[in-house]
Here is the input.
Amino acid sequence: MGQATAVATFACGCFWSKEYFFSKVPGVVATRVGYTGGHRSSPTYQEVCTKTTGHAEAVEVHFDTSKIRYEDLVRFFFEMHDPTIDRRDRGGQYRSAIFGHTPVQLTVARSLKAELEAKGYNVTTEIEPAKQFWQAEDRHQQYCRTRGFTPKSYHKDRWGHNV
Here is the structure.
């Protein structure tokens, strides 16, 4: 029986550390960093940094659906950064966003965002259908792992579980 995989795409700040954390999640089989959500084809890192392309730095996560649910990845996404900080006015490169690849993914993401808002969080995360994902330059892939760098984590359980 073959492995059933799916793709999820998230943006929430610098993609180097976010890729590192997603790659450590049990059930994640591959990650890559890139740019999405903008209007420029084949953007470079330098172009995205000008804040004129509309792209966010993002992580594409390939996961084994028999080992982890998409909902669990979205919950992890909301816990690994502070989604109440509005970074859209800085050109959007570091904005909080979920790019759903299916209607079910969009529904799950919207539901969890609404759950957090019902708890009083002012969530700025954008949720939109996935667009073209432009892979970042090779030097950005697995940046933390290849340089022996362990980033500091931000973790807050917004659902009331014991951490």
